[in-house]
User: Which sequence fits this backbone?
């Protein structure tokens, strides 16, 4: 077998994946609802072709051959080999009939979850969720290799090599730190006014503002596009076609403005992976956590910067056609960065967001490593929201039914979001050693920031593991302290907390 | 072999085709230009999968088996069998290497045509066009069965069973008839004023108007959508997903208004094919000519109706926000239906349009059945425009380089457009026996027209040949007289020609 044959097979797999990505983008942006059943058939057929090829004889032969002759692979081939081997072994580990039963259960659970949401009644989702958990535990038994426990197997799928042992420590520090900051804000802080956030800003004005900002941040519209959707996402179809989406709320401009800043971060990542990796699984993000670190770098670090907003505010006011002309900049900035307990994860501010994730992590871990049962879930959910955020969901819709993840069998995914926060802050800390970020954000040219991230993160695609990327970029492993330091400094400023220096 | 196995194979082919249709729609509506090269790879790969499957052993086995056991096929299976057999034999007839050479030449010719257009210089396209013609002649040698001549083989691809012998007669009558009407208009007619056609009507107003009209005509937006594009088209992806596109010109409202009325006709056809034919090649139009008959029924018959416009005019004026408030209805109507010689086919009015087609037909026929050479083309083109339309193109861009068809090897396609005109008028004539069309078009409810067309044309999909559809629907074969009668009545009214009745 020649490397070229191996790469050709990967290219064909990638071409199928590109077609599936366009179909998925289309389903989320423009497809008539009535076409859903027909579309499911197309998706199912292409997925089947993909799976058969990804587990087929050519891939098997390549994996065998290059295990014996690794020196015949180029750097691209070697990086691809590692990823393909992992996916192949994961697919091979589970008997086909077990996987079929699992897929059917997941598909059914999504329907049950939708119905339960419509009825605002967890009990309608209970059995399907129990099935998803039970069948996922079956899969874990087949997939488990050297991992210490069941939940580690799930974590590894989204964040290679991440373990429960590590997350326990990291999340403990993060939770304690955030709760301490919140306590200080409550005791000594001045909460900013935020009524203005509900002022009406027409879609066209929001669009004009955020399109220019996304471009300035480095998102290349010549190799992308921005569309409307219900659930915002970014999708890297190929090197020259990376699309982002958003939804618009005229009386809540923050939804689209921060939504696009966030998705543009994902998009910029995908647009700047080295083109040599195209047509292989290396031309993707290194992990969910690293991907989120790039969207959250945009949303949290850049979108949280006073200098950035001070520079953009005149243009923002212009796009809002007078609606904010009476509002002093500092009130605008402080209002956007207010923080308060809320029930819905995706609407949470950047200080409370990690707590939503930690709640889900603790629950999932107990479901898979411990003895927590589905019937105990609603009570545990409410108790943890009360304990960490001081509020209790009044119903299932604002509580345990809010996320799609469990209906889709995506256990182990949530931690990625919090990892993204921590990675972003850690990268930011390191970046400041060579770039005066606040100064750059006060200028017209943000490119030094984008270039640093491309140099340290984007270009590698999935050729490095997440921990390699963070270690190589910052000189140390994941450290939650940078996020805590960042949040404390930011929110103490916004809430005008007087820090008494003990001299 | 069971019928279910045959239909399953056809379904898988159809699922691939659906994926390719979405990709094509995407390429024409929203894909970033920069992604073209990547997209070509995806298209090429999926086309290859499709071709291998369509010419593969399962189809071959089914064709053999059901040739012996036709009684084991349902009506759907039988209709599908006929179409599959024809496509299979066409594919099998040509050796793969000959087809590859042809495909490469076509791809190259498209590039040459684009360059020639940019330079406004036919000589840059000359060699590629000569290659396309030479290689098409090679294909014809392999594909020719009982057809009398080379051009008949080409016609049969787009309009099954249509022959040069029949078209010669039909086009002769059509040309003579149209030229006679034009002579009368020139001699006795009052040309309407049409300056108002260039008044500015914003896109949003045009959109509001035409969306409502398309819906009233029967285009179902719940199973479709309207998007912007450069080259308007309609595409039936599946029974519940039939999309149309248009372009907008603020200072030429007719482009989008009549464009959408036209494309909606294609869309309504696809939306009303019997759903039982879905996942087979029967769930398509019967031919290019029949498809055009449905778009042109909308554009020519409905869009040419005084009663239709009289009813719509108040809403049109409202959508134009006052721009046409000073314009009496009859001036609006007459202006839209003015006729004059023009150089560009796709901008021609309904009276002169067929002459553009006849010119192309005569040229193509001589290229394939006669002795016309590529070097003689520019002169012949100019001479025919002078002879039939009284004008001579000043350059290649407004002359021989205007159409994409020859660069794509689509010889034999042009007559479909003129067939669509004649079929539409013939169907209209028959429809009037049971429906007072003018009266219906003066009401709020156009559904009797749509239902008649569904009953006689749409629902059959490709289960009948075009000639069967016309014969069954109208009781006679193609007859160009109905179009001539229709055009004469319409244009004599618009041009206020006094018809002296000899008593």
Assistant:
């Amino acid at each position: 077998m020649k490397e070229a044959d191996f790469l050709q097979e990967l290219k064909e797999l990638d071409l199928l994946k590109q077609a599936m990505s366009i179909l998925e983008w289309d389903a989320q942006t423009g497809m008539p609802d009535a076409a859903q059943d027909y579309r499911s058939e197309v998706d199912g057929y292409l997925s089947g072709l993909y799976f058969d090829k990804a587990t087929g004889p050519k891939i098997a032969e390549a994996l065998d051959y290059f295990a014996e002759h690794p020196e015949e692979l180029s750097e691209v081939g070697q990086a691809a080999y590692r990823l393909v081997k992992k996916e192949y072994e994961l697919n091979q580990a589970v008997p086909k009939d077990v996987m079929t039963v699992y897929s059917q259960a997941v598909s059914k659970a999504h329907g049950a979850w939708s119905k339960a949401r419509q009825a605002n009644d967890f009990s309608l989702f209970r059995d399907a969720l129990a099935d998803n958990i039970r069948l996922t535990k079956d899969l874990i038994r087949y997939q488990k290799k050297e991992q210490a426990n069941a939940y580690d197997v799930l974590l590894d799928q989204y964040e290679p090599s991440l373990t429960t042992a590590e997350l326990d420590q990291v999340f403990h520090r993060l939770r304690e730190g955030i709760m301490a900051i919140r306590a200080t804000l409550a005791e000594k802080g001045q909460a900013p006014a935020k009524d203005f956030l509900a002022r009406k800003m027409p879609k066209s004005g929001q669009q004009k503002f955020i399109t220019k900002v996304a471009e300035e941040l480095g998102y290349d519209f010549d190799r992308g596009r921005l569309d409307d959707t219900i659930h915002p996402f970014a999708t890297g179809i190929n090197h020259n076609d990376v699309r982002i989406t958003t939804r618009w709320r005229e009386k809540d401009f923050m939804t689209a403005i921060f939504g696009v800043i966030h998705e543009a971060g994902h998009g910029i990542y995908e647009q700047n992976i080295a083109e040599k990796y195209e047509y292989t699984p290396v031309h993707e993000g290194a992990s969910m956590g690293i991907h989120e670190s790039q969207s959250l770098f945009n949303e949290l670090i850049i979108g949280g910067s006073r200098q950035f907003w001070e520079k953009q505010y005149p243009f923002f006011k212009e796009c809002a056609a007078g609606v904010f002309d009476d509002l002093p900049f500092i009130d605008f900035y402080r209002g956007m960065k207010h923080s308060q307990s809320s029930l819905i994860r995706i609407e949470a501010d950047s200080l409370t967001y990690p707590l939503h994730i930690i709640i889900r992590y603790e629950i999932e871990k107990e479901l898979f490593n411990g003895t927590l049962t589905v019937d105990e879930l609603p009570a545990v959910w409410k108790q943890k929201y009360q304990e960490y955020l001081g509020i209790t969901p009044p119903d299932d819709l604002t509580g345990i039914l809010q996320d799609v993840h469990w209906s889709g069998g995506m256990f182990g995914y949530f931690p990625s979001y919090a990892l993204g926060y921590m990675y972003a802050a850690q990268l930011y800390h390191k970046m400041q050693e060579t770039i005066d970020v606040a100064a750059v954000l006060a200028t017209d040219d943000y490119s030094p920031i984008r270039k640093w991230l491309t140099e340290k993160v984007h270009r590698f695609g999935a050729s490095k593991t997440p921990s390699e990327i963070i270690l190589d970029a910052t000189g140390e492993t994941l450290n939650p302290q940078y996020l805590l330091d960042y949040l404390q400094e930011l929110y103490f400023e916004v809430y005008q907390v007087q820090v008494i220096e003990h001299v």
Notes: The mean pLDDT of chain A is 96. DSSP finds 20 helices and three strands in chain A. Residues 107 and 408 of chain A are 7 Å apart (CA to CA). The radius of gyration of chain A is 23 Å.
